[in-house]
Amino acid sequence: MSEKPWDGRFAEKTDCRVEKFTSSIDIDRRLYAYDIEGSIAHCRMLGSAGIITPEEAATLIQGLGTIKREIERGQFEFDDGLEDIHMHIEARLLQVAGKVAQKLHTARSRNDQVALDVRMYLKAQTHAVIKGLVGLEKVIVALARKHLGLVMPGYTHLQRAQPVLLSHHLMAYYEMFTRDVERFRECLKRIDVMPLGTAALAGTTYPIDREQTAELLGFAKVSTNSIDSVADRDFIIEFLGAAAICMMHFSRLGEELILWSSSEFAFVDLPDAFATGSSIMPQKKNPDVPELVRGKTGRVVGDLVAMLTIMKSLPLAYDRDMQEDKQPMMDAVDTLQACIEVVTGMLPCLKFNSDTMRAAASKGFLNATDLADYLVMKGVPFREAHGSVGQAVSYALDHGKELQELTLEELKKISGVIDEDIFDLLTVETMIDRRKSAGGTATANVKAAIDAAEEGFARREE
């Protein structure tokens, strides 16, 4: 069993079962680069403040660099007895740099140290998530422009409702992921706070310069309350909340691709490279990628619930329960980034079956609302018009026709104000392009939305 930094207080060695139970090294070893970067900044600050000599700071920084290279080359030995990445690095530094390594922990605690590492990790990962989502948005917008003329049925209650442009439907996902980007950017404001120097919970007696440490590490601000600094995991919960919402959007997209690629819909063909087959049924082409995206949403929602449950009822300041914060955080990061990557790769390869989609948009009385609106323009009160069109639909069903297939004489039996001009209004193109209200599916609206999105991308890249 390895020596512990607290061995002076205890008469017995830690039971090996306790060492295994309390160890987090299998998870937090991923934080090594942030731990070392934070320690180097801490050393520089200690040297500048005169708490350690410049020579001691240089020796510690050199030793930390050596350890980082060892880890990256796979030459570093990990031991459950040392619990976490912080103790591993400190123990190895003693071997590499000698007794001066014992000064590394001056003016800090593992409590503020781990809070720093987690914030640095999540800050970097949040930037990566935002970059990935913007890339996905670009793919969606490009897909919308490519298929600007394609029509499809829009749905409510999974029943055909009114015809819309496929591009309009795709741009709805652009809006969703835009909100996700905004949420993650807001998260960054709460993540980008430097906690180091608050020590265990009460601050330190040493004349440290926390602003200098924050500047060295690229943090926007310094935490203002030492107790909250080590007890706070709101920033993780906020990230997980944003991640859960984002995954919900991925799940909805995945569900639609599953439905659309089925024989019953046949709106889209998934690329072979993003589908799998059956071990027993040779004809099968399964939408495994969208299904797994849909399934993995549950993991990220679970990560959010786990983190909320970990933190609920915890007294201030630090409690060992908080060691469990990293697994849900890292799982959500990994899962979300994997979904962003695979969906971004899959979407450009989709093949839409325009004839099937158009046929679906032309059947099922999707022009009923337009017929009602026509009656209203002729002076019929909307509720009366609604009832009359309902009768027309019932009549058409009985005679195996669509509304546009009824004769003028048949339509006049429903309402005498109907004239020849009705038939021009019941075509799919007319129904779509007449919906010019802001945010509507009219081609001009959708093209303007695509233009605006592309202009936004260009401005951000300038």
The structure class reads mainly alpha
Q: Number of folding domains?
A: 3
Overall residue-averaged pLDDT value:
93
Counted beta strands: 6
* CATH top-level class of the largest domain: Mainly Alpha
Query: Which descriptor suits the 3D outline?
Result: elongated
According to CATH, the homologous superfamily of the largest domain is Fumarase/aspartase (Central domain)
- Along the chain, the helix and strand elements come as HHHHHHEEHEHEHHEHHEHHHHHHH
Task: Supply Rg.
Answer: 31 Å
Can you lay out the helices and strands and say which pair or pack?
Blueprint: H1 16-22, H2 25-28, H3 32-48, H4 54-72, H5 85-97, H6 110-146, E1 151-156, E2 159-165, H7 166-191, E3 193-194, H8 210-217, E4 221-222, H9 226-231, H10 234-260, E5 268-269, H11 288-311, H12 326-346, E6 351-352, H13 354-361, H14 368-377, H15 382-398, H16 408-414, H17 422-425, H18 428-433, H19 443-461
Parallel strand pairs: 3-4
Antiparallel strand pairs: 1-2, 5-6
Helix pairs in contact: 3-4, 3-6, 3-8, 4-5, 6-7, 6-12, 6-19, 7-10, 10-11, 10-12, 11-12, 14-15
